[in-house]
Amino acid sequence: MVVTRFAPSPTGYLHIGGLRTALFSYLWARKNGGKFLLRIEDTDKARNSQEAAEAIVKAFHWLGLEHDGEIVYQSQRDDIYAVYIKRLLDEGKAYKCYMSKEELDALREEQIANKERAKYDGRYRDFSGTPPEGVEPVIRIKAPLSGEIVVRDGVKGDVVFRAEDILDDFVIARSDGSPTYNFVVAIDDHLMGVTEVIRGDDHLSNTPKQIVVYESLGFTVPKFYHVPMIHNSEGKKLSKRDGATDVMAYKEMGYTPQALLNFLVRLGWSHGDQEIFSMDEMRELFNPKNINRSASIYNTEKLDWLNSHYIKNISNSTLAEMLEPYGLLLTSHDKKEILLDALKERAKTLKEMASLVNEIIIAPVSYDEKAVEKAFKGDTADILNNFKEKVAACGELHLPSDYHHLMQNTVDEMGIGFGKIGQPLRVALLGKMSGPGLDSVMAIIGKDETILRIENILKKHHA
RNA sequence: GGCCCCGUCGUCUAGCGGUCAGGAUCCCAGGUUUUCAUCCUGGUUACAGGAGUUCGAUUCUCCUCGGGGUCACCA
Predict the structure, then answer these.
(1) Start-end of CATH 1.10.10.350 domains in chain A
(2) Is A425 near strand B, with its CB below 7 A from some atom of it?
(3) Beta pairing class for A296-297 and A171-173
(4) What is the Cα–Cα distance from A453 to A339, expressed in whole angstroms?
(5) pLDDT digit string, tens, across residues A365-418
C-alpha cells in the first residue's frame, strides 16, 4: 500500500508551492489506491494551527482534493515523542548534553574563526560525571561520525553525503523537553505508515539526519522524492513577497480548480507532449519518476491559457454554477445559453466573465467618445432608424439569427456594407467598439431593450 | 565559506549516442470576424563554456562558469 502525506507548517494558508507537492502526493496515492494523509507540523506550539489546518482543508475542498483519515497535529503528540526519546536514551543511542547556550555559541565562533565547520564537538557523548548545576540539558542523538549516508531519491538519484561533512550529534529534544523537527518527522512518517515522501528539495539536506533517526530506531526508511523548487522571476525560492502565493487568491481572481491543477501538475512534471489533463487522467498518468530534476520559474501565462481553455470547454450549466461565487446568478436566466455561448470564448477568468456579462445586461451609461466619432457618419441615424423600425415591426424575436436577418434586410435595402450598421449599433448597444456578436447581444437583452438603447444614443448623438 | 542539487527556445517541457533538436505558451505576420476576442495557417527563438570517451555527443566522464538549496535548542 502506498501511503503519502502532506505536512505543512501552519502559516495560515495553502501556498502554491505546497499545493504542488500536495497534488503530487495526492495523485500518487490515488493512482495506487493508497492513502494521502495530512499532518500539521506545529512543534513550535503555534497558536493558530487549527485555523491553518482549516484553511488548507478549505483550499483542498475547492480544488477537489481530499485527504484520508484524521489530521495529525504534531503539537498534540508530545507523549508519543517522549516514548521514543526515552527509548533512545535507554539504549544509549542518545544522551543528555549539558552544554549551555553560551558555551555552544563560543564553540561555534571559535570554529568559524579557525575556518572549520561549525559543529557540536561531542563533549557529553560519553559523559558519566556529575552534571553541572543550573543547566537544563538538551537531548542529542548519537550520529555516525564517519562513513556515508546515501539518500535514495526517486527524482535526484542516489545522493551521497559524508557523515563527517554534514553530521554531528544533533539535538532531538530541547532543554524544555520539546522535540525538534528532524526527529518528529521521522517518527511521524513511520507511525503514520508513510511509504513515499514527496516534498520540496529544500528538504534534501535534512534527509540524512532523518535517516539517522530512522536507523537508530530500527524503522524502515521510506522512499523519497525531492521535487525541485518553484522559483520566482528572479530565480529565487518562491515566497509570500512574490504576489499571489495563497491558493485561494486564485479562486478570487477567477481561476478554475481544473486549470490551476492542470497548470501545477505540468510544472516540473510531464507526460510526453500532453498539456491538457483531466483529473482522471492526472490520477491515471501521474508518476513521480517523471518529475523533472531542475527548478522551474513561476510564470502564469500558461495558467491563463489553461483557464480560458477550460472556460471555453465547460458546459453552460456548470459554468453558470461556477459563476455564482462571482456574483452572477444566471441559472434561471432565460437567455442563459446564448449569453454563455457568446461570452465563454472571450473570458480568461470567471471574474472577467462575470464583468463581461454585466457589460451586456446593463445598458451603457456613457459612450466611448472615439467610438462615437468613428461610427457616426452622415446617414448613421437613418440606418439605425431603419433597423429599429424593422425590430419594432416584428412580433416575436428570440434567436440571434432573427436579429441577423433584420440587420441583413437593412443592409440590403439601403445598399450599404455591414460595417455601416454594425459599428454604430455596437456603440448604441454596448457603448464601445468591441464586444461579442451583435445578434447575440440583441437576443440576450431582447427586443424592447434593443429599441431603447438605439433611441438613447440617437437622442444624444444626432448624426 | 562547507556540503548538496541543478543548467535544452523568454517561460513550461520532450529527448534518454546518430533527430531538419519535437510540443505547448508567449510574441510576430496572414486568414476568418461589422469590431474585439476565439479559431485556423505560418514564422522568430534553445542544447552555458571547455576538455575528454566514441566512427559519432544535447545525451556518458571531468573541469570551469552560472543559478539555487541547506548548514539552529525554526519548520
Answers:
(1) 363-460
(2) yes
(3) unpaired
(4) 18
(5) 999 988 888 888 888 999 999 999 999 998 888 899 999 999 999 999 999 989
- Identify the pLDDT of residue A243: 80
Q: Cα–Cα distance between A255 and A249 in angstroms, integer?
A: 9
DSSP code of residue A145: S
Residue with cell 513550535: A44
Annotated catalytic residue: which of A45, A86, A101, A240? A240
> In angstroms, rounded to a whole number, what is the distance separating the alpha carbons of residues A35 and A53?
18
* Alpha helices, DSSP H, located in A314-415: 316-323, 336-343, 350-361, 369-375, 380-393, 400-414
Q: What ipTM is given for this predicted complex?
A: 0.96
Q: Contact, A4 vs A34, CB < 8 A?
A: yes
Neighbours of A252 (CB within 10 A): 14
What is the nearest nucleotide to A46, using C1' and CA?
B75
Would you say the pTM of this structure is higher than 0.90? yes
pLDDT exceeds cutoff 70 at A46? no
The DSSP annotation for A176-209 comes to: TSPBPHHHHHHHHHHHTT--EEEEEGGGGGGHHH
CATH architecture, domain defined by A78-227 = 3-Layer(aba) Sandwich (3.40)
Assess whether pLDDT exceeds 90 at residue A334.
no
Instruction: Characterize A376-385 residue by residue with b for buried, 16 or more Cβ atoms within 10 angstroms of its Cβ, and e for exposed.
Output: beeebbebbe
- A235 CB below 7 A from strand B atoms: yes
Number of alpha carbons in the 13 Å side-chain half-sphere of residue A99: 22
d(CA A190, CA A173): 18
Q: Which residues contact A419 (CB under 8 A, 6 or more apart)?
A: none
Smallest CA–C1' distance to B4, residue = A205
The domain A363-460 is placed in CATH, from the list 3.40.50.2300, 1.10.10.350, 1.20.58.220, 2.70.180.20, at 1.10.10.350
- Model confidence at A240, pLDDT cuts 50, 70, 90, reads confident
